[in-house]
Amino acid sequence: MSSCDKAKDVGRLLQGVLNSKQTLAVLDHAKSCEQCRDLMTAGARIVTGSHEEEVIVPEAHRCSPVTHPRASVSRSGLTNEEAVNWIRRKRAKTGSRRLLVFGVLILAALFLPRVLRPSGRRHPQSVEDLFTVLSLSEGRPVLLSPVGDMSGRPMAIAVRLPAGNERFRLRVLTEGRVVFESEIRMNDAGATFDRLTLDGDKGEITAVDVLAPFPPRDALALDEGVEYFSQVVLPNGQRSAPRGFRLL
Q1: Domain-embedded: residue 148
Q2: CB count, 10 Å around CB of 151?
Q3: pLDDT tens-place string over residues 168-209
Q4: pLDDT computed for residue 198 by the predictor
Q5: Where are the alpha helices (DSSP H) in 116-168?
Q6: Strands 148-150 and 156-162: what pairing?
Q7: N- or C-end of the chain: fewer Cβ atoms within 10 A?
Q8: Domain that residue 224 falls in
């Protein structure tokens, strides 16, 4: 009898080195290949603790009651067929876990580069970030600081402008009236205008990240406990939402 090309795969199956897909292919092949089926049966005897001299009674000779051969029962109490099915299910579960791990690794490979980008690329992390992206996509500036209660006088203002803007006006209001207004330009001392890329709903948004000194005391006196509002106005008339701050 010529040797079957799949016989080596049966040996690999018994060694436990095949994945779930390969295991199922070998088991399906053994149904129609007597040589591979005999190899698998011999291997099953070793795994299940049965003896080679014990022969299963053929179907045609089972007219009278017979005792089921001990060779078909494993130490675990499973028949040969049940043992093979158990191995098959075990391999399938192992293959599923491998696929799950590979899937996680693929997702990590796809998304980690989007998270671990240079500081010039930022993604919405909070409601304020989403508001910033929405405002910039509509061409409106966003004032980020000063905001809220403060233990001391603000040192700087932080603003984000739509792309292409190199100047803006800063207004400070209290009780509905403007108490300070001044223009801030890209070339002003202490001011930095940096290009910034954000992720928006319809793709990337290019913006200008601005950090500039807060107006000095002699230009703007602030009283403790009084609520002030800052606002940014662009040359085209677009305005940011007023943001309140207060000295404690």
Answers
A1: yes
A2: 6
A3: 999 999 998 999 999 999 999 999 999 988 887 777 889 999
A4: 86
A5: 127-137
A6: unpaired
A7: N
A8: 122-247
